Each structure stands twice: as C-alpha cells, then as structure tokens.
Amino acid sequence: MREIFFSDLASAMTTLILAVVILTAVPQILSWAIFDSVWTGDPAACVDAGACWSFLGEKHPFILFGIYPPDERWRPLVVILLLIALALWTLPTAHWTRRTLYLWIAGVFTALLLMRGGVFGLQHVPTADWGGLPVTLLLTVLSLAISFPFAIVLALGRQSKLRIFSWASIGFIEIVRGLPLLSLLFITSIMLPLMLPEGITIDNLLRALAALTIYAAAFLAEVIRGGLQGVNTGQAEAARALGMRWVQTTRLIVLPQAIRKVIPPLTNTVVVVVKNTSLVLVIGLFDLLSAGRAALSDPDWPAPYAETYLFIAVIYFAICFGISRYSLWLEKKFEQGVQ
Amino acid sequence: MKRNIFHISNFRGLALGAAAVFMSACSGADRDEPETTAAPAADRGSTLAAVQQRGHIRCGASQGTVGFGSPDVNGYWRGIDVDTCRAVAAAVLGDRDKARFIPLTGQQRLTALQTGEIDLLPRTTTWTLLRDANGVNFTTPNFYDYTGFMLRRDKNVTELKDMKGASICIQTGSMPEVIFADISHKYELEMRPVIFDSVQATRQAFFSGRCDALITDASALASVRATLAKNPDDFIIIPANEEITPLTPAVRHGDDQWFDIVRFSIFAMLMGEQLGISQENVDEMLKSKDPTVQRFLGQEAGNGKALGLNEDWAYNIIKQVGNYSEVYDRNVGVDSPLQIERGLNRLYRDGGLMTPAPFY
C-alpha cells in the first residue's frame, strides 16, 4: 500500500492531490446526480435543482426513436431488439456458420421492412421520419456489412501484381483515408444531388450510408492488408503445392489466418464506425445524438444538457464496451486454438 | 436559429471541382447556370400536379428550431414554418396533415429545394439577393426579424456607440457574424468577437459572463431572454443595424403557378386576420354578406380556379391551420413559451409590416 502510493515525493504529492480532487468532486457529483436531483415532476421542479432526470423520463422515447410516429414506436423497438438478439446469437464462435449469415440478411431485411412499412397493413414511414437508436444501429450494421466484402477486395487488390488493380486500390484507400468523414458526408449529401441527372433524388439516409460505407471500406481494407502481410508466405506456397487455386488458397488458407490476426484492430474500426454514425447529424438525420439535441431544444425545460448527453453516452458506451470485451474474449480463445 | 451565409454559387464551383476529382466519369453532370438545376418541375403546374399525384407535400424542415419548426415529444412537427407548410397542404390537398417534413441542415436546404427533394422550403431562411438570384424564388415573408444585441441592463448601454471595445458572443457561420463584422468596421467600435460553433454554447457563454453581449436574431434573443434568463428584466435588446431580415418560404425557379399558390397561402393567413376570420368563427363567416369575405372563403367562385385549386382552399387554411395571429401566438407569441412580441410582424393596420395582397 505505502509503496504504491507514497514510494517517493512525486508519487506522494500525486496521491495527495488526487485524494483532494476526489474528496471534493465526489460529494458534488453525488449531490448533483442523486441528492439534489429531480426524478419526477414538471419542468419547474428542475429549476435550480440538481440533475433533472425527469426530463429523460419524459423525453427518452423521443431520444431513442426520433420523430418516428408515436403510435408506431413498437416497430423501431422491435428492430432494436431484433438486432441485439442477432448480435447475441452470433457471439459464440460455434454459431459462425453460413446459417447465421442468412439469419443476419433476413434479420436486417426484416428490420428495414418493419421500419419502412407500407406492407402487411403497416403504415408507411418515409426514411425522413426514422430516427434515434434504430438509425444508429442500422447505419452501423449496414455500413459494416456492405463495406467488409469491398474491404477484402481492396486489400487483396492492393497486394495484386497487376498494376491497374493495385493502383486503383491504393488510390481509393488513400483518397478516402485522407478525407475527414465529415467532408465525405457533405459530398454525398450536398454535392452528389447536384451532380445527378435532373429529377433523380437519392434518399438522405442512403446518402449517409454511402458515405459511411466508403469510409469504413477504406479503413477495414488497411486493417485486413495488415493481416494479409502477417500471414507467412509459406502458407500460400504450401497450399499451391497441394494444387489449390488462387481463390481457394485465399479463401481457405490466407484470409482466415489474416483476419484472425487482426481482430483487435478490426474491433477498433468497428467501434470507430459505431461512433462515426453520430456525425450524420450534420446532414440532418435524427440519429441518437441529434435526436437528443432536438429534445434539448424544448424551451419548457431548463435545458438539462449534462443529463441528456450522459444518457446518450451510456448507450454508446454499452455498445462500444461490449464490442471491445467481446474482441478480447475472441483473441484469448483464438490464442488457445493456436497453441 | 442558425442561418447560413453560404450561398449556392460558391458551392457549385466547389461541387464541380470535387466532381472532377471524385466523379470524373460523370462528365455529363457539368451544368453552368444554377437556374437550370431548378428543374424537375420547370413547366407550369408540374409541382402542383406532382404534389396532387403523390398525395402529400414535402417541406424542408430544421433540425429543431423551437417556435419555427421542431418536432415535439411525440415527433409531431410544430412551429410557424411548419404551419406555413401545413397551410399549403390544406390549400392544395384539403388536409393539413398531408405535409411531410424533411429535416435539413443550413447547408443542405437550398440544394434540397433545387434538386426537387422538397417542394417548399419554409425554414427560417432569410431572403437575400444572392440566394434569390441563384436558383430559388422567395414567396413572401412569414416572419420579419432583425439582428440584435442582448446585454445586461446594468452595463448602461442604450445605443450601439456605447459598445466600444465590448466582447461579443457569436455563433460561427451565421448571418449575425457578417453583420457584426460590418458594424464593428463601420462605426469603428473595436468590438472583440468570441466565437462558438453551436447555439447552446454561445448562449451559455453569454450567461456565464464570457462576453458583454450576445448577438443573434432578435426573435431568438427574445426567446432566450424569456426562457434562459433568471430575471428577464435584467437584460435589454438593442438592434444591431437598420436592416430587417425577412424569413421567407422559398420555392424553385420556374414554376410560377406553385409560386403563386405558396405566396397566396401565406397571404390567406394574413387576410384571415385582417378580415377577423379565425379557426373558431370561419364556419359562421361562410354566411357573411360581405363580398370580400365571400370571395375570400370561396363562396363566390374565381380565386381557386385562378390558382388551380378548389374554391374552398382559403377556407381550409383558416379552418385547419388558423389565421396569422393564431399561428403566431400558438408558436412564438403569447401562447408559447417563447413569448416573442408581435412587433414588426403585426399587420400594417396595427403598425407592423405584414400585409396581404387583395384577394380578387
């Protein structure tokens, strides 16, 4: 104990300063978050009080579901649960089968259909009215799913001996990586419509999805390339010696080893993609974050920013922390497999 | 109420430059005149026909500007701009709820209108020369605003000249940023800007004393004072210049019939107020002997046919949305939390700037 906290003068000072900070901050935070906080009641109760949790009590459906029609809010709720269920089902490596892939395709298709409506007597809800957590989740899932195959092609293309493939891949990856995601979003949401032929408009959500997919593809490609370079060339040579063709070698021997090697950076990219979806607020989509901001603009309430952002942060944290713990577990599991 | 100073011509240059890099394959996309982009609905009447066929009207909306356009806790859009859109829906389709709102950022809004993504842009957009000349048409203002400073009363400032050397909280990219630079230069006030990138940050900075004054649209200042100040009487608002910023719903170039419909839908709300016709008494007013009222409510045919609408179009607006004073009071005026005084937005009769064109 003493060795850890007071081993020399510098660490003793640090310990003391931190202790003072914690001792003063904790009671304040506690009194704000719990003792002085308002859990029920109307806006007036929140004036000059601590945390205004009753604001979240009233606004959480709006923050979670955006401007989706209130009578139809069960649909985005089902979509959220469906996506979470799919994700949980996929966790054990024993479930990494072709069937799970089909389940995902069916699940995402159902989710989109359920959000959109217009069939089976469901009210049609245009994408402009979609919002909140389902938009965040769908953008994440779709952009990752669509970009992953592209990323593999790009990564392989970058290593190709044919100049035209490698240059095209390098050009794409470097241009996209050199751009901030914000500018990509602006290009797809503002410039693209101007460049399209007259009378053709693309859905705002699709445009955002396009930008996120392009961005994710470039970053995933670089991660996968790292994995490809880490695979011993002997592996591919051995496969070829056994008479395997290039496609078989790549699909069965090289890629599985490559991807296994890069699970930590892949997770990293996935976490970044989850958080990047919040940038779509600059192009007018009501994702989780912008729905929260829209909820805050209600003048009836004394604008409880901290509470709302905490609420949103907790959701993002749950998603991102879950992903990173899972990747840690995967890594350990595969390490055992190798040994 | 962020109003972007961004205008289309700059942007098309950028767009085309980027096109060269990113989409060199699409060389067919180069178009020189912004006007030509106006076009999915260039010929007379095509917007009206498209809206009628689609069964709803698409309006550009903000991402939440309370009083002008923001979704309430149930996701139902409310605001003076939203009601303008609903009025057009009532006039054209006979149902105010046949309006859909597409949230747009300040940068997107004009593009969305030009490319036909929306039929109408009522979204706190200031009518300016460059915007008007570059591809959109402004119908008629539904709200007059001006730019103002808000200060603490105890600073003893009564006019601009007293503000020499003051530090001013500004939101970046907004119209007031330009106006601030202009007046600071013009009157040699040597004011120091303290710039923030969001409305909330700007306001919080002002109330926490980071700067002496806050500059933004007077309507926004009034609502900030009414809602965020502990004691509203501690603050005063002074105009920054003599210019008025007319917030005006816009339509695409090239469809005169649609332009007329939107303009007269706004006029109909004003005319309703002028004639004393409200949501409540409109049914009684149908029996009125006054020829002006009869023409207005379509008892005497002619106006509807001229616009290409049913004769009861103005009746529908008043019945379903209300006259201008009802719309104003409900969204930004006495019945709303914003409590913005009518001021410039009174009828001409009452000392304001609002006045409808005659309905015959």
Layout of helices and strands, plus pairs?
The complex is a heterodimer of chains A (339) and B (360).
Chain A: H1 2-5, H2 9-35, H3 53-65, H4 74-90, H5 98-116, E1 131-132, H6 133-159, H7 163-177, H8 181-195, H9 204-230, H10 233-241, H11 246-261, H12 263-276, E2 286-287, H13 288-296, H14 305-338
Parallel strand pairs in A: 1-2
Helix pairs in contact in A: 3-13, 3-14, 4-5, 4-6, 6-7, 6-9, 7-9, 8-9, 9-11, 9-12, 10-11, 12-14, 13-14
Chain B: H1 8-22, H2 46-54, E1 57-61, E2 70-71, E3 77-78, H3 80-93, E4 99-103, H4 108-114, H5 129-133, E5 136-138, E6 143-152, E7 167-171, H6 175-186, E8 192-196, H7 199-207, E9 213-217, H8 218-228, E10 235-247, E11 250-252, H9 256-275, H10 282-285, H11 291-297, H12 303-307, H13 313-320, H14 324-331
Parallel strand pairs in B: 1-4, 7-8, 7-9
Antiparallel strand pairs in B: 2-3, 5-11, 6-9, 6-10
Helix pairs in contact in B: 3-9, 3-13, 9-14
Notable characteristics:
heterodimer; A: 339 residues; mainly alpha; MetI-like fold; two-stranded parallel ribbon; B: 360 residues; alpha/beta; D-Maltodextrin-Binding Protein, domain 2; five-stranded mixed β-sheet; 14 helices
Overview of this structure, please?
The complex is a heterodimer of chains A (339) and B (360). By secondary structure, chain A is an all-alpha fold. Chain A has a domain at 54-68 and 125-338: MetI-like fold, CATH 1.10.3720. In chain A, 73% of the residues lie in helices and 1% in strands. Chain A contains 14 helices and two strands, in the order αααααβαααααααβαα. In chain A, strands 1-2 form a two-stranded parallel sheet. In chain A, α4 (74-90) runs antiparallel to α5 and α6 (133-159) packs antiparallel against α7. The longest helix of chain A is centred in the last third of the chain and has 34 residues, at 305-338. Chain A is globular. The two termini of chain A are 37 Å apart. The model of chain A has no long low-confidence stretch (mean pLDDT 84). By secondary structure, chain B is of the alpha/beta class. Chain B has two domains: 8-142 and 249-350, 3-Layer(aba) Sandwich (D-Maltodextrin-Binding Protein, domain 2), CATH 3.40.190.10; 147-243, Periplasmic binding protein-like II (D-Maltodextrin-Binding Protein, domain 2), CATH 3.40.190. Chain B is 37% helix and 16% strand. Chain B has helices at 8-22, 46-54, 80-93, 108-114, 129-133, 175-186, 199-207, 218-228, 256-275, 282-285, 291-297, 303-307, 313-320, 324-331, and strands at residues 57-61, 70-71, 77-78, 99-103, 136-138, 143-152, 167-171, 192-196, 213-217, 235-247, 250-252. A five-stranded mixed sheet of chain B has the order 8-7-9-6-10, sandwiched between helices. In chain B, β2 (70-71) and β3 (77-78) form a beta hairpin. The longest helix of chain B is centred in the C-terminal third of the chain and has 20 residues, at 256-275. Chain B is globular. The two termini of chain B are 36 Å apart. The relative contact order of chain B is 0.15. The chains are: A mainly alpha (339), B alpha/beta (360). Chains A and B meet through α3, α8 and α13 of A and α1, β2, β4, α4 and α8 of B.
